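Possible regression after last week's pipeline update?

I re-ran a chain I had predicted before the update to compare outputs. Posting the input and the new output here so someone can diff against the archived version. Not blocking, just want to make sure nothing changed silently.
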Amino acid sequence: MATTKHQAAQRGSGQRVRRAAESQKTERAVFQDYGLIMIVLFLVGIGLVLLYSTSSYEAALKYDDSAYYLKRQLIFSILGTGLMFFVSVFPVSLYRRLEMFIYGFATALLILIIPFGRAANGAKRWLYIGPVSIQPAEISKIAIIIVTASLICRIGTRDLGKLKSFCIVMAPAVLQAAMILLITRNLSSAAIVGMIAFGIYFIAVRDYKIVGLVIVAVIAAGFGLIYASITGILGGFRSDRILAWLHPENYAEGTAFQTLQALYAIGSGGFFGKGLGQSVQKLGFIPEAQNDMIFSIVCEELGLFGAIGVMLLFLILIWRFVVVAYRAEDLYSGLIVSGVITHVAVQVVLNIAVVTNTMPNTGVTLPFISYGGSSIILMLAEIGMVLSVARRGRYEEAARRK
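New output (post-update):
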């Protein structure tokens, strides 16, 4: 009798365990970080409104359709949102298994620019598949996030502070950055690739001696470039950009024209701006304002209030990323999110710094706001990676509480 009761208790216990496991699996399958999704979709929506306001005049002149850029960006945003949810379904461990394929794919696309790339605005940076253009440098950024996170996990955080480990971690990014610079002449994308890898390393490392040395070296190199430009040692368009940054009034008709017009837009916006759609500088004064200089039109139309609002949205987004990284189920997942944090933060800071003439002019887009298919689609794909981490991280945390 006692044995029968014991067996019944065991069967009941086993059934409860199975039901709990099935419940946990169901929870894992349906969970989404809706807060993060809403922030991203809100940013995309705001970006579409600001893009239409900025680009309608130029689109009407060039294409006889004021909504030309809006329609294309809307298609890119829908495709990117679909890709975001598609990527979020797969576990982060899949990226690690495919890391060499993804890195090789990014490298191959960069090499294909040499024979098949098309030039636009004086730069050969795009591959065209029919009417669709792809900027391989954007794919390189995702590849570097995946590969760098994997290398750090293999080395381990204890040995990460050694010079040899630092060189191993940075090697893939340095190679990609060198290829981007040599093939596409895109210094800003090359720098962002390097900063993404360095940002992930900075978050993972325990000993900051190498980090400090690298920062000092970069600052010294920056001052060296400024000195070489002023003294005439460094020539070419990069020297012109540095000189135009230091003395924009001396290059008002050339290199600094776009920057000065952007500053006029920012200054004329005041605190509350002229009103949405009321910008003057977008009427041909800022060339292709819907791209890198869109933030200046935001300042002109929405004022300081609107500019701070946009920056706060990005801060909220990054805060959500930090929460996801903190709750990640393992080191690799956390480093993947750290890479996305670095990518978004670096591009936002660089874009705003260029628009306000805090640093020399470089072609860096404002995430989710600037016009560009490759940029928004692949940025949303990175958000999908974060959502994948969030789904499994939140489940693990709930399970531990239980």
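Follow-up from reviewer: compared with the archived run. Residues 46 and 369 are 7 Å apart (CA to CA). Marking as no regression found.
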